Automatic annotation (TrEMBL), chains A, B:
The lineage of its organism: Archaea, Methanobacteriati, Methanobacteriota, Stenosarchaea group, Halobacteria. This is Transcription termination factor FttA. Zn(2+) 1 binds at residues 244, 246, 331, 354. Its EC number is 3.1.-.-. InterPro entries: aCPSF1, Beta_Casp, KH_dom, KH_dom-like_a/b, KH_dom_type_2, KH_sf_prok-type, MBL, Metallo-B-lactamas. Binds 2 Zn(2+) ions, which are required for nuclease activity. Keywords: DNA-binding, Endonuclease, Exonuclease, Hydrolase, Metal-binding, Nuclease, RNA-binding, Transcription, Transcription regulation, Transcription termination, Zinc. One of its GO terms (biological process) is DNA-templated transcription termination. Residues 423-548 form the Beta-Casp domain.
């Protein structure tokens, strides 16, 4: 009998001790970090509303209770009863019964009404039919990404359960080493922006945190091939943790599966969906530009199949000696400050990932309260000594001015923006400005994946700022559905119409002008001095965006999408309106550390240009008297 | 055709261009770092005394010329001619003809007379017989180690040539990476003394520097199993460099071969022989103490078979992007400061290994002049703020006082000493003191491997201090052969006789009282308050030597060698006479850095107790304004 089997037997005995004598436990098993308890008496189990919580607290595990398949009622009968119990206003759009696990997945427009107060409706369902209900939200704006991911996971349900069981045993394996140490190895994004990747290692466990590409620097990927990364094989990694879906953090995650990795990816649910969207687009853009992407779309599916969703604030066992907790980072949908508790009180490391410290229209500011934290790995994108941005109110005023000026001279505004994050923030600004009459009503065209990304945002309102969530669901005043927003889905023809038409605003990807439909808008709008290009986000070194921002007006154009290649002379005005960045500025970064509770002993300043990380590292040292570092890529720091 | 074959073809063409038209080059091949040139006209080749030097300088390679086997004269005839050419006083003791390579190995008491002025006699031999002579010294004191190593290498000659050819191709392989970086990973001896081990890595190459055990801390070995060490397989290491033969640097070298390593070990010739001696003894001691050593003696033979001897000052290609140069370190016989030139002018790292800065009786002081060096990895054994030793003259006076006092009260002196290094130093002191009448003539008993280690010293006088070398060979006044020195080769019976006899001095291993015959001397001498134990070398934390030095007088004794076990009460006086250490003291360490030319930008302070490395690191920073570090084990520093 293996150590894990002994452990499960012990757990079953403990559970049997805790539950009333009339409840039979037929099996106990691990699926990923969760302990799944099978019972022959699901109805009785559900009648004690506090039982699962008590068990979870006693065993210090995340617990799911499922009916033994033998005792299930027939889906046809069950469906009728379930629909009877759920209030009509919940807007159930789909019911899906899985006899293998006794789960019924309920898709509804208002999941809260399916759950009921403190889960009371869910328990009522189980008491009535025995099945274990699981609730997902029907996307308020149809999202092909969300429905593709859900359908794919449904179709791969059996294999996924096998994967989760294997991972579960891996997580709960016995610790082998008497040694104690905690290390971080830097594989990318040190003294540079892009290709974020780190290894957190202990004698037991090796965790990869992020695995991105470097925008504007083709082929520059994290140092995955060195021995301390994947040099001894992709499965020398126990787990991958993804802080958020931007490609400079996620693009190479699917590559890990091509290299043979078959372990878990821990991230929030929106990060999983956005990663799917962005990595597939990454492949698409590469193909269109005649580049050979490092992996195919089947690897994106593998990655999604191996995702284990984490909710903000949940403490999750991801290895025998590592617990992961993710917290809102305020940067993009699903972005997470990731906290690792290592050993039994041995050490704590927090990775900020990319953060926004102050509240924005979309998100609450980043969380910086932890039970304990000794070392912080801190983004420093705007860590330079002069990287102060105007506050958002000023930025909005400036943006509106630019739009008004351009409108007055009959010009058009094009805003390159990341599909995910800044686009939605700008949409909210524009919607309000038009509603309040600060700028004229005019069409706002959304090109690239912005529309789809917006749909994903509305699927996960729990991850948005409180009052925005309320507007989307409670007041039926979803700002993203305002009529001036037009989804460009007619290709070049539609773009030509827009270019030939009246003043308007275009939001288009890619955000750093490294490819995608923005290249087409450059051609359409670039030659007219009445038009304006407005940068609202960070432009990395080496990107065309950074060059245009710095004054380049001769832009080499490749002949993609059938257009002629050659050089394009930009006549339109170029403006930068900062303050909309998804990143904290220097002040925000300092505030994050200043108000962090508890204050860390050591800070590794990463994810910034060389001068930014060095400025920021030196400032933190002088202001807060902590040990600070500006690591290079390929270094290893030992903390214990 | 492989890249290496193309390279060899090009080299052959270059050589053919340089040599006179009447000399035919039949083949060119690599053996380890050397370029071997086979010629059908060895006699003509040898007639131009400067030709090999010109070729070496043109091709920037170490060059060996050998006759094509087809053109060789018969050994019987050749032997007669060779003996005729070599002056009788050279004392030839053996001639060994190897028809496969056309080499004749000449063992002689005075190798210099076989070589002749600037190699004239060697060239005369080749001009006469065509064979390529190679000269080795007949050990002036018979050494079983030297003769075993030589016989073993003779017996394994064919396999060794295969190994060298394989390594040669490996060294001269084409560089694959466009990337540039230089890193050092610490695997041991950081904030501790013992288990020295580092990895120097570039995108092309990974080199292991030293691989020792930790005296007094059983089972504590370098972190070889982490991915960046051997985690991806022992042959992810390209080369091993051994700075010197002490077990805290060499003990686990044979283990690498058990793990499957089959690459080269670069070290000086005396280090190779001493490593053989010390690691075999390490296995012997382990067996006697009932421990299970991590490898068997056949792995020591593998290690010796893979040694590539390096002479001080020779620049040697050890990888496509790494050149190694070893320099005298003044610490023990063959000990080397090891300098790595990486890339074509990219970066230079020097490892001090263990050093003695000032001249001692045995050795010249450590070399600290280099063409370039940016980073120094520096031993800090006596780096603590108070680690100043009296100078050697004072130390010698003190030692003589202790001996005289003990003699006067009819007591005996026992000195625990490393077999290699300190023993010979003390022997030189005692021999002179008796010769000059500073202490009474009395027997000096040498126990453990001291006699054998001394024999090895006399085999390699080139590695000893100039005037000592002269005494050994030119004046026939070899101090190591003085009649008071007695080799204890009669075991316990002889020890009992010594214990029962008149005043005397015993030099015995192990130097830190962690096992070996010193345990027996403790039992014999310990209970008599008239006796003295004198420590003359560093005692590592956790060793019995350190404890006794600190005042322990109840010594637990195991019952090895048939004696009863239990506790031994030490009544004899314990003295420490420092100043004989093979290590520089704090002053010497500082002087090494102060006078180093050029001065390095960065210093990693290693190989010292935690407080010593931190004191020393901080002192270097404040005195010389350099970047200094006191690394932990398992860290990786990147320099480029």
């Amino acid at each position: 009998m293996s150590a894990v089997e002994r452990q499960l037997d012990d757990l079953q005995a403990e559970i049997e001790e805790e539950v009333p004598a009339d409840i039979t436990i037929s099996d106990v098993t691990y699926e990923g970090p969760e302990l799944v308890v099978y019972t022959r008496d699901p109805k009785e189990f559900a009648s004690d509303g506090d039982l699962v919580r008590r068990l979870a607290s006693k065993l210090r595990k995340r617990i799911t209770v499922r009916p033994d398949p033998d005792v299930l009622s027939h889906p046809r009968e069950a469906e009728e009863q379930v629909r009877d119990i759920i209030p009509e206003e919940a807007g159930v759009t789909d019911l899906d019964f899985h006899a293998d696990t006794g789960e019924v997945v309920i898709e509804a427009q208002k999941p809260g009404m399916v759950i009921g107060r403190h889960g009371s409706t869910l328990r009522e369902i189980t008491r009535a039919v025995g099945w274990t209900p699981e609730v997902v939200r029907t996307p308020p704006i149809e999202s092909s990404t969300v429905s593709n991911v859900r359908n794919f996971l449904k179709q791969e349900r059996d294999e996924r359960r096998d994967i989760l069981e294997r991972i579960g045993r891996q997580i709960h394996r016995e610790e082998m080493s008497d040694d104690e140490w905690v290390r971080i190895t830097t594989l990318g994004c040190c003294r540079e922006v892009g290709r974020a990747s780190f290894i957190v290692s202990t004698p037991e466990t090796r965790i990869l945190v992020d695995c991105g590409d470097k925008p504007g620097a083709e082929g520059e990927v994290p140092y995955l091939q060195v021995p301390e990364a994947l040099g001894a094989g992709a499965n020398t990694i126990d787990a991958v943790v993804l802080t958020h879906a931007h490609l400079d953090h996620s693009a190479l995650i699917p590559l890990l599966f091509k290299y043979g990795y078959d372990g878990p990816i821990y991230c929030t649910e929106p990060t999983r969906d956005l990663m799917g969207l962005l990595t597939l687009d990454y492949l698409d853009v590469a193909a269109k530009e005649g580049r050979n992407p490092p992996y195919g779309s089947e690897m994106v599916r593998e990655a999604i199949k191996h995702c284990i969703p984490i909710e903000y604030g949940d403490v999750t066992d991801i290895a025998p000696d590592v617990k992961l907790t993710m917290h809102n980072a305020g940067h993009i949908l699903g972005s997470a400050v990731s906290h690792f508790h290592i050993g039994d009180g041995l050490y704590n490391v927090a990775f900020s990932g990319d953060i926004h410290y102050d509240d924005t229209r979309l998100f609450n500011g980043a969380v910086n309260e932890f039970p304990r934290v000794e070392t912080l790995v801190m983004e420093s994108t705007y860590g330079g000594r002069n990287d102060y941005q105007t506050d958002q109110e000023d930025s909005e005023r400036k943006l509106k001015e630019v739009i008004n000026e351009t409108y007055e001279r009959d010009g058009k505004v094009v805003i390159p923006a990341f599909a995910v994050g800044r686009s939605q923030e700008i949409m909210l600004v524009l919607e309000e400005a038009m509603r309040k009459g600060d700028i004229p009503e005019m069409p706002v065209h959304l090109d690239g994946m912005i529309w789809e990304a917006t749909a994903i945002h509305t699927t996960y309102p729990e991850y948005l700022r409180d009052d925005l969530r309320d507007r989307i669901f409670h007041e039926d005043a979803n700002p993203f559905l305002a009529e001036q927003f037009n989804h460009i889905d007619g290709g070049e023809e539609e773009r030509q119409d827009v270019a030939d038409g009246d003043p308007c605003i275009v939001l288009s990807t890619s955000g750093m002008v490294t490819g995608g439909p923005i290249m087409s808008w450059l051609r359409h709008f670039g030659p007219d001095p009445n038009n304006r290009m407005v940068f609202v986000g960070y432009q990395a070194q080496g990107t065309l965006g950074r060059r245009i921002q710095n004054g380049w007006d001769e832009v080499p154009m490749s002949g993609d999408r059938g257009s002629r290649s050659g050089t394009l002379t930009l006549e339109m005005d170029v403006k930068t309106v900062d303050g909309f960045s998804g990143h904290a500025d220097r002040q925000g970064l300092e505030n994050f550390v200043r108000t962090m509770n508890p204050r860390p002993e050591k800070v590794l300043c990463v994810h910034g240009d060389e001068s930014s990380v060095q400025d920021f590292s030196s400032a933190l040292y002088h202001e807060f008297n902590m040990r600070t570092f500006a690591p290079k890529n390929l270094e290893t720091f030992r903390f214990k």
